[in-house]
Amino acid sequence: MVVGGGNFSSESGGEGGFAARTEGNRPDRFRPEGRLADMEREPETPPGPPWWRVALIGRRPRRTLVRLLVLVVLTVLLFRFVLVLVRIEGISMSPTFRDKHVGIVYRLAYLFHEPQRGDVVAIRPLAGERAGYYLKRIVGLPGDSIAFHAGQLLINGQPLDEPYLKRSYSWEMEPMTIGPGSYYVVGDNRTMDRVDHFQGRASRERIIGKILL
After folding, report:
1. Closest alpha carbon to 117 in 142, 151, 97
2. Which of 29, 58, 100, 149 would be 64's cystine partner, CB 3.0–4.6 Å?
3. Where are the domains of the chain?
4. 4-38: pLDDT as tens digits
5. Which of 137, 105, 131 is nearest to 119 (CA)?
6. 162-192 CB burial, b ≥16 within 10 A, e <16
7. Among 57-71, 90-104, 111-125, which is the least confidently predicted range?
8. Phi and psi at residue 71, in whole multiples of 5°?
9. CB contact set of 86 (below 8 Å; sequence gap of 6+)
10. What would the CATH number be for the domain defined by 83-211?
């Protein structure tokens, strides 16, 4: 039985089934899948910089350069106005600070208050003295009476507890009064003869800061 008018024909293909064929028995044409995939493929991104360059200067060299310049300027300002590196020479502060020890002095330590007893400070030398700074401990404050007797430091006639001292000593010095604006400084190694040990009064203007390390 023919349905329509010649475009379809009936064939035996099961129980009364029909088989549909395109006009002229020509198969439909489709674009090959491979070409379609090529058209839809995203363009490849160029390779990034090598890892060593990223590790050294990052992915944005200009921004890294700006950060480096800012860091250099801040470092110069920090060690020009805030911190001072000092290298210990000698044994007068032993064993607290040994010979060749490198320390950091904080210049702003006394910005809001005066030096305190027990502080280890850097002291600017007087004109004509050796170059560098003296590193000493403050033991006497302005107005104090200070003396050494029988291995004891006496402040206003009373022994001062000094736990930082590790060895006994036998210095002798008559009482003396510290004037206004001055401090009495001395090292922690008092096994040396007193005449060979830099110690005495230092004006406030000569104290540049407190040692941190």
Report:
1. 142
2. 58
3. 51-81, 83-211
4. 444 434 444 444 444 444 445 555 554 555 554 55
5. 137
6. eeebeeebebeeeeeebeeebbbbbbbbbeb
7. 57-71
8. -65, -40
9. 102, 103, 104, 105, 122, 132, 133, 135, 211
10. 2.10.109.10
